[in-house]
Amino acid sequence: MFLSKQALLRLAFLTSLLGIALTDSANAATFSIGSMNITNGTYIVWDSNNALLVNPSTGSSISPITYFGPNTNLVSGYIGNGGGGLPSSTSDSASIFGGIWFGSPFNTYTAASNLGDDSSPTGSIVGGPVPTGTLDDISGTITMNLSSLFGNWGNVDFNAGSGKSVGITTWFATGNWNPLTGDYSMSWVSTVDSTVGGPCLPTSCAVEFTLGGTVTPVPVPASFWLLGSGLMSVLALARRKRTFTST
């Protein structure tokens, strides 16, 4: 007994869906981040009284990340040289990302401890391990440990990473991930010490960073392969149907 072409198409589609369901139930649906990039971002700053600060460089309390370095793959290792020795008005071309705050550029890098600058002795601020993260293709979430992220503004290093905020409730940057397109958006809050000066005097500032881009899981979720094979079967059967129809 032969199944009709319509039945075969339905069977291929249902098989791919069943495979996805079985795979997601058999696995924890959590994968490591294999590679990533950063293509967009914003930051918001509060003063010690929890009042939003308007950035005079943008005229808004929500400021865009305006620079993305040559390497934004956070999980590839420590990135950047810290911008040490550069004039406070100069952007660091080796940084991960940066922007303009109160007329001066800030730069970011990752390290086990700060790399030092005029007002920040090398190793005086604790960083963290090379960033790592996980992806969940069922809940569609991204979670990253960014405790090694530093900023440099006005020749002063400061913590910019996750888990560096006073009264923290999580050590991670968290957000959404689309397993079909790879797009993600994640955010976290970090406390900037008053040693940075400027608008963070006399105590400190709180900064919420939001970053977006694309990310790749390792290994690629098996559900991707099952979905792909199911779709290939559907396309092959549809092509076969057109061939029979034309003859």
Which tags fit this structure?
247 residues, five-stranded antiparallel β-sheet, alpha+beta, 2 domains
Quick structural overview:
Helices cover 19% and strands 33% of the residues. The protein has 247 residues and is α+β, with helices and mostly antiparallel strands.
Overview of the structural elements:
With 247 residues, this protein is of the alpha+beta class. The protein folds into 2 domains: 1-27 and 222-247; 31-220, no CATH class. Helix content is 19%, strand content 33%. It is built from 2 helices and 13 strands, in the order αβββββββββββββα. It has helices spanning 5-26, 222-246, and strands at residues 30-36, 40-46, 62-64, 67-68, 97-101, 104-110, 132-136, 141-145, 149-153, 156-159, 173-177, 183-193, 204-218. The strands form 2 sheets. It has a 6-stranded antiparallel barrel with strand order 1-7-8-11-12-13. A 5-stranded antiparallel beta sheet has the order 4-5-6-9-10, with no helix packed on it. β5 and β6 (104-110) form a beta hairpin. α1 (5-26) packs antiparallel against α2 (222-246). The longest helix is centred in the C-terminal third of the chain and has 25 residues, at 222-246. The chain starts with a helix and ends with a helix. Mean pLDDT is 82; it is low at 20-26.
Layout of SSEs?
Blueprint: H1 5-26, E1 30-36, E2 40-46, E3 62-64, E4 67-68, E5 97-101, E6 104-110, E7 132-136, E8 141-145, E9 149-153, E10 156-159, E11 173-177, E12 183-193, E13 204-218, H2 222-246
Antiparallel strand pairs: 1-7, 1-13, 2-3, 2-13, 4-5, 5-6, 6-9, 7-8, 8-11, 9-10, 11-12, 12-13
Helix pairs in contact: 1-2
